[in-house]
Specification:
The chain contains 11 helices and 3 strands. It has 330 residues and is an all-alpha fold.
């Protein structure tokens, strides 16, 4: 008879970011402000791309999808982290813990592949401008997005299928503010050392492969352009700088968490906050405010809808995203 997983742990205890109440209040305010910026910024990018016909191009289609992924990647863990900062006892049900693991790795894996797709789009636009509209047609763009989602889903399901079958019968304290694979595997009532290395390698290989592919693609773009003109190289460098910045800051923490062999709790917590809270801000901050077309589109949006409607929209979003959830939590 096959052995059945007799898990007796119904919930896990999260230790959170720190023990000091003063620091928790500080982090609550800071992370709440950052999360609001993530939500409003990425929602606004999606609205702008959808409503402005001037932005109906492959680059902005991929950018809107990146905003969508960033929004959900941050929303998987950040709202609970914010409310937990005001609680003494921080717990999460077993099912909720598994959901966090699944969605963090699903959205994270999808974003990695989506960044590769954006690099491919820039390669075609800069290196093959005459064939851009033919190569990056609507069907190709949708296929790239579907590949990114499929990769993230398969990657996440392959890891979740292993973790849910582990026996959890004793320790249930997770030394972080959310459930992640390395931390949860340590709590299993088995010798999980080899399994932990295998699971971390799965995430690390995906991150490293995408990171190396991105670096090669951008290096090839710059090398190709320099063969024709220095002005073109300068323009290409300016175009790719934002993408390279996002790539380094997004993949750096991820590679550190799953590839670095040493476990330093305080450093891991900081990197996790950076990955889940700071990185999703890079999309609206870097791609939007440094982009001329987005700035022009923003001015058109303001003139079309007016400041009064815009202020009303912000107030309604603040109510739905902050006041109402907090009222339900307390």
């Amino acid at each position: 008879m096959a052995e059945v997983n007799h898990s007796t742990v119904s919930e896990f205890i999260l230790l959170g970011l720190c023990d000091s109440w003063g620091l928790q209040i500080f982090f609550f305010t800071l992370i709440l402000v950052l999360y609001l910026a993530i939500v409003l910024g990425n929602i606004f990018i999606m609205i702008l791309v959808i409503t402005d016909s001037h932005l109906h191009s492959p680059m902005y289609f991929l950018l809107a999808n990146l905003s969508f992924v960033d929004l959900w990647l941050s929303s998987v863990t950040t709202p609970k982290m914010i409310t937990d900062l005001l609680k003494e006892n921080k717990t999460i049900f077993f099912g909720g813990c598994m959901c966090q693991i699944f969605f963090v790795h699903c959205f994270g894996g999808s974003e990695m592949v989506l960044l590769v797709a954006m690099a491919y789009d820039r390669y075609v636009a800069i290196c093959k401008p005459l064939h851009y509209t033919v190569i990056m047609n609507q069907r190709r763009c949708i296929c790239l997005v579907m590949i990114s989602w499929t990769t993230g889903f398969v990657h996440s399901m392959s890891e979740l299928a292993v973790i849910v079958e582990l026996p959890f019968c004793g320790p249930r304290v997770v030394n972080s503010f959310f459930c992640d694979i390395p931390l949860v595997i340590e709590l299993a009532c088995i010798d999980s050392y080899s399994l932990g290395i295998l699971m971390n390698s799965d995430s690390g290989i995906l991150a490293l492969a995408c990171f190396i592919l991105l670096l090669i693609s951008y290096a090839y773009i710059l090398f190709t352009v320099t063969q024709y003109s220095k002005d073109g190289a300068t323009k290409a460098l300016s175009t790719c700088t934002a993408h390279i910045t996002v790539v380094v800051l997004f993949f750096g923490p991820c590679i550190f968490i799953y590839v670095w062999p040493f476990n330093i709790t305080s450093v891991d917590k900081f990197i996790a906050v950076f990955y889940l809270v700071i990185t999703p801000l890079l999309n609206p901050a870097i791609y939007t405010f440094r982009n001329k077309e987005m700035k022009v589109s923003l001015r058109r949006f303001k003139s079309q809808y007016g400041s009064s409607r815009w202020n009303l929209l912000i107030k309604n979003l603040l109510f739905l995203l902050v006041y109402y959830p907090l009222q339900q939590s307390f």
